[in-house]
Write the structure tokens for this entry.
Amino acid sequence: MEAIIDLSNFRTPGSKVFTGRDRGIVVRNNSKIDELITNSNHIEILVPEDIRSINPSFLEEFLINVVQKLGKANFYKNVFFRTSGKYDIEEDLQEAVDSILREENGLSK
């Protein structure tokens, strides 16, 4: 089974960016991504066409539990970002995943 998360459902009206740890937590909770990865084989995350940036700090909080559960290789095999606009998420996504998996990072409590 594949699950779909459409980020347009979680954006601030008129916003062209997803940024900040607090916003990442809100979207993680509201999208139920942690539950979806438990109950689905794959997750497809749709990025709105007019998005200009998704900040790594947002991605870290949005994806922390999924990345920690799956590990790097399985994360990239099971979670897919689909963008139809000009924004290329790869660099920001890699930075976020690597940060999550480092022992000492901004997410350490």
